[in-house]
Amino acid sequence: MAPIQYFLECSYKAYEYTQAGKISAAQGLYKFILEVDPKFISTYTNLGVLAEKKQRFGLAESYYRKAIEVDPGFSEAYYDLGVLYWRQKRWSDVVGMFEKTA
Q1: What is the DSSP string of 63-88?
Q2: Nearest CA-CA partner of 52 in 92, 90, 87
Q3: Which fold has domain 4-99?
Q4: What is the pLDDT along the chain (102 residues), one digit of tens a residue?
Q5: Roughly how many angstroms between the first and final C-alpha of the chain, as a whole number?
Q6: Every domain of the chain and the residues it spans
Q7: Please, what sign has the CA dihedral across residues 84, 25, 17, 29?
Q8: From CA 73, how far away is CA 65, in angstroms rounded?
Q9: pTM of the full predicted structure?
Q10: CB count, 10 Å around CB of 50?
């Protein structure tokens, strides 16, 4: 497994790609991170955010759910999933997700 600093640098570079509108490059870098270490949890939520930017809501939901599966205590994934549900007006699902972020 690569050192955490390397993953942080890759993640930051993917963030820069996102800010520059290079979504595909960012996705590729995030997927590379997961190939090396599938437990680098924030990468799943980052991929979920990118999927939302592309209006691929089902894919975004699957990334958020994968983050929760890998680490049920990762509240950011519940929050992001709750926001996705809110945008989709899935009110009963929103409450359940936001309750898990507290």
Answers
A1: HHHHHHHH-TT-HHHHHHHHHHHHHT
A2: 87
A3: 1.25.40
A4: 457 888 889 999 999 999 999 999 999 999 999 999 999 999 999 999 999 999 999 999 999 999 999 999 999 999 999 999 999 999 989 988 988 887
A5: 32
A6: 4-99
A7: positive
A8: 12
A9: 0.89
A10: 21
